[in-house]
Input
Amino acid sequence: MYRSRRVRTTVVLLAHGSPDPRHRQAVQAQAERTATVTGLPVRCAYLETDTPSPEQLGAELTGTVLVVPMLITPAYHARVDLPRAADLLGRGGGRVVMAESLAPDPMLVAGCVEVLDRCGVDPSGRVVLVAGGSSDGVAARGLAALVARHGPPTWRTTTLADLDPVLLERDPAVGTYLPEPPAAVLPFVLAEGVLHDRVGRLARSRHIPVAAGGLLGTAALDRLIGRRVGLSN
Output
């Protein structure tokens, strides 16, 4: 059974934000599921593009504010933006507690397996996971390390910038050709949106199947977010 925190705790799912409304819809749906399980009020805030921003939401919050960073790669936002967001979310007098980001956690790999299963792709096959790029390459290295530790040996990782050479069966790192193309490409994203669609278009142009859909909505992500909130099952 789940055990929830008591008294005056508001959970904030702090997401990146996207110009694509599907991202916001997926985060909001996750907030509703988390609220149902915990019995706690769950709000959403966004680092970019969407509203409310941390500053806007923070003006409304009092009591304990438990922030769950909805970040699945340890990129720039995790190191730079989260401290500022925590300060802004506490501007209304709330006591902000910052939970760990979703990354790196093996439950993210379990979520990818669920997406592949849902799309009819064998998770033990040759799958390429595609992350968004970051200015310092931290996101790419973080995903590669996660898959190396917890993923099947048949999986490999790349970023959108390097995806086309991979789909052409050429390893961009060493310039050698791969023995066969991947069985599927999986956009490593929380929700459908800009990156998800760009990855999909490029893969389909090479006649390679895409495991469409984000990680939100999988049982693995529900459990992972529950753990970050401080629940056990």
Q: What stands out?
A: Strands lie at 9-15, 42-46, 64-69, 95-98, 127-131, 156-159, 184-187. The CA atoms of residues 4 and 180 lie 49 Å apart.
